[in-house]
Amino acid sequence: MTAPTWAEGVCAGVHACGSRDVIYVPDNPLAHVLSTFEDKYRDVRLILATREEEAFGIAAGLYFGGRLPTVLLQSSGVGNSLNAITSLLMPFQVPALMVVSMRGDVGEWNAAQAPMGRALGAVLDAIGVQHSSVDSDAAAEIAVRIAGRTAFATRAIHACLLPRRMTSP
Amino acid sequence: MNRVEATRIVVEIADAAPIVASLGHPAYDLYAAGDRPENLYTWGGMGIASSIGLGLALARPDLRVFVLDGDGSLLMNLGSLATIGLLSPQNLTVVVMDNEEYATTGGQATPTAKGADLAAAARAMRIDPAVTVRSDTDLRAALVHPGLIVAKVTESPPTSKPPLDCVFIKQRFMAAIGNPEPGTAGAAFQPVKRPR
User: Fold this and answer.
1) Are residues A66 and B169, on separate chains, in Cβ contact within 8 Å?
2) Which chain B residues have any C-beta within 8 angstroms of a chain A C-beta?
3) From residue A59, how far is each of A70, A72, A110, A163, A168 by CA, in Å?
4) What is the DSSP letter of B2?
5) Is A58 in Cβ contact with B195 (below 8 Å)?
6) pLDDT digits (tens, 9 = 90+) for B76-95
7) Do B48 and A51 make contact, defined as CB atoms within 8 angstroms?
8) In the prediction, which pLDDT does B190 show?
9) Of A65, A87, A93, the CB nearest to B167
10) What average pLDDT does the segment A156-165 reach?
11) pLDDT for residue B152
């Protein structure tokens, strides 16, 4: 199975910003990212978390141990992460690259995904987490790479959002 | 055995190894047992101290990592047991101070007061060994191993609180365990050593 261009770009961007530890709670589009990491980036450690808040705890611990963590999650899982982000990573100035597979944005079919998906940008703004969106397949590598570099250089979380029109056209 | 007595034993056995303490009473007791730069007082991230310890243990396989958790806080994050069981890091020891109450919030009973068994839950998630101890002798013996220890303790009212500056705690901690945060004073005087 050939991974879509955007997934190849996400993996290349994560790798290029220096992150070798990827904590994930899977979703359908992210399966392409995970399989690309497994196939082409044997130096990247993939760590499965049972829930998104746990993923951010593991990410913080990795950073305290000198690593640069990436968290892969679906937008719905950002809600599950808010206490870890706001009460641990932000006050400790622990950076993480967040790669967020969007639900609830344009193209969504499931009403249950809509409220959080539509609110996500405002929620991240409200807590002061920087975010940017990947506009096209071709832009994925640079968008993720500079999101990660920004995060690790400024010791702050940066969320890179993968829109549904790209991941699930 | 009360909680601060058990905490002192963990600090003694840990020697120079890092200790991650859950927010609230576990962190207060760790500070009371003796402030040291290898102490990570979390202040936030309620429930995820064991996850922080797991990440640290994965980042630094050359170090033993200890976690001071509480029964109430671990109950918020039981999925962590499955992740720790799955990865089974041989350098991580999670100590759950089980006083059977939410002591930090006023002493409401937790499910462990009615028999919920966190060591059995850990064993079911393939954390090995996972034991319950009730004496200082048994705690000392268990601390030799990785895995999970439920220490049945009585409540001991905290007497002091650790420093509140989270960035100070982080930078002091990272420098002390040998991976100073890049761009900090600690890093200027020590080469950044990244494992692997």
Assistant:
1) no
2) 20, 40, 42-60, 63, 77, 79-80, 82-83, 86-87, 166-167, 169-170, 173-174, 177, 179, 181, 192-196
3) 7, 11, 30, 24, 27
4) B
5) no
6) 999 999 999 999 999 999 99
7) no
8) 54
9) A93
10) 97
11) 98
Determine whether the interchain pair A57/B48 forms a contact, defined as Cβ–Cβ distance below 8 Å. Answer: yes
Q: What is the pLDDT of residues B15-43, one digit of tens each?
A: 999 999 999 999 999 999 999 999 999 99
Peptide bond into B37 cis (omega under 30): no
Predicted local confidence at residue B196, as pLDDT: 54
Q: Do B55 and A60 touch (CB under 8 A)?
A: yes
The C-alpha of A151 sits at a distance from chain B's nearest C-alpha, in angstroms, of: 13
Backbone CA torsion sign across A145, A148, A153, A159: positive
Q: Taking the CA atoms of B25, B26, B29 and B35 in sequence, report the sign of the dihedral they define.
A: negative
pLDDT value at B191 more than 80 = no
Chain centre distance of CA B131: 16
CB contacts, 8 Å: B173 with chain A? 64
Query: Is residue A36 helix, strand or coil?
Result: helix
A27 pLDDT higher than 60: yes
ipTM above 0.90, yes or no: yes
List of chain A residues whose C-beta atoms are within 8 Å of the C-beta of residue B179: 65-66
End-to-end CA distance of chain B: 41
Q: What is the pLDDT of residues B47-74, one digit of tens each?
A: 999 999 999 999 999 999 999 999 999 9
Question: Is there a contact between A50 and B166 if contact means CB atoms under 8 Å apart?
Answer: no
Asked whether residue B188 carries a pLDDT value surpassing 90, the answer given is no
Here the tokens at position A130 are 């920087």
Tokens of A139: 């832009």
Rounded Cα–Cα distance for residues B144 and B90 (Å): 11
Three-state secondary structure call for residue B130: strand
Kindly determine whether residue B83 and residue A49, on different chains, have CB atoms separated by under 8 Å: yes
